[in-house]
Amino acid sequence: MMKIYKNDLDDSVVHVCSQIEDDSWVRLVNPTDKEIEEVSSKVGIPTTLISQVLVEKELPRIKQIPGAVLVVMDVPYMKDKSIKNKYITCPLGIIICDNLHVITVSLQEHAFMDEFAKGNVETFFTYKKSRFLIQIFLKASEVYLSTLSLIDEDIQKMEKNTYYSTNNRVLINFLNMQKTLVYFLTSLQANSHVLERLYTDEILTMYDEDKVLLGDAVIENKQCIETSIVFRDILDSTMDTYGSIISNNLNVIMKFLAGITIVFSIPTMISSFLGMNVPLGVIGQSDYSFLVVCIVSFLVSFVIACWLKKRNML
How many angstroms separate the Cα of 292 from the Cα of each of 41, 274, 282, 289? Predict the structure, then answer.
């Protein structure tokens, strides 16, 4: 998919264009080879600069070539709502060409980029390219924070189902959440390196307002990193605690089953003794022998059950 956006000088309304113009924003989402060739020929950059971003494992970095600067960052993405490990990170490339065009390249369509296309981002203009880049980092940080909040809600929901659990399914779900937090933390730290390089090196032309905004982006990214670390540490301790709870629940069940086995083995043992092919004297001659055996078995089982209960073994 390829879409072209532009707004005029001091006009906050973003217009959709039919062709690539100066000071326009070209948005590429999983583009075809034909679209890549078209953009490459129009703006004068090699096709490899675009296609290398279309790799799921592409790492955040900055690449400078004559006439263009490529900035790659990682952004969160919801892969599948039906599974617990549903959040991943994927690369988003921003190419600034001779300070005339901005090209964003990604494999997935991100909802926060739609806010720019709709003109809902304050002080967003397609001709302010350095600011646009910084605003993308700021919006990505907001998405990270909101996604971390959703992960925290999922963790709390799973905690409620763990108190009486005796299987490993819940722990596996916790492990999937832990993987997501590790991916987030790794991506955020890589984004931090990119932001620090933008802040210290004169890679792009920036005005004083842009530098202030870049400082805010650095702070927001650090906050996301700290939040991810806190959630990861909480999840680590939660997994250890609930692993012990699951083990304890299993021990309680085994203790109960062992106590029940002892109680029900008493009638079996008594009837086995009395059922042997040997003379039983008065017990074997009475008309009430069966009733007496049942009563005695019940009383002995009841006494043993009470004793086990008193010892907290049942």
Answer: 101, 12, 12, 5
Read off the pLDDT of residues 146-164 as tens digits, 9 standing for 90 and up.
988 888 888 787 777 666 6
Determine the Cα–Cα distance for residues 224 and 229; give it in Å rounded to an integer.
9
Angle at 111 between CA 11 and CA 68, to 5 degrees: 65
Contact 58, 191 (CB under 8 A): no
CA–CA separation, 179 and 185 (whole Å): 10
Q: Which residues contact 204 (CB under 8 A, 6 or more apart)?
A: 69, 96, 129, 130, 133, 198
CATH numbers and ranges of domains, the chain = 2-248 (3.30.460.20), 249-310 (no CATH)
**pLDDT at residue number 186:** 92
Under the banding of pLDDT at 50, 70 and 90, the label for residue 35 is very high
Tokens linked to 34: 């034909």
- Angstrom distance (rounded) from CA 116 to CA 13: 10
Instruction: Put the strands of the sheet holding 2-6 in their side by side order.
Output: 15-17, 2-6, 24-29, 101-106, 87-97, 68-78, 61-65
**Residue type for 289, please?**
S
Position 220 pLDDT exceeds 90: yes
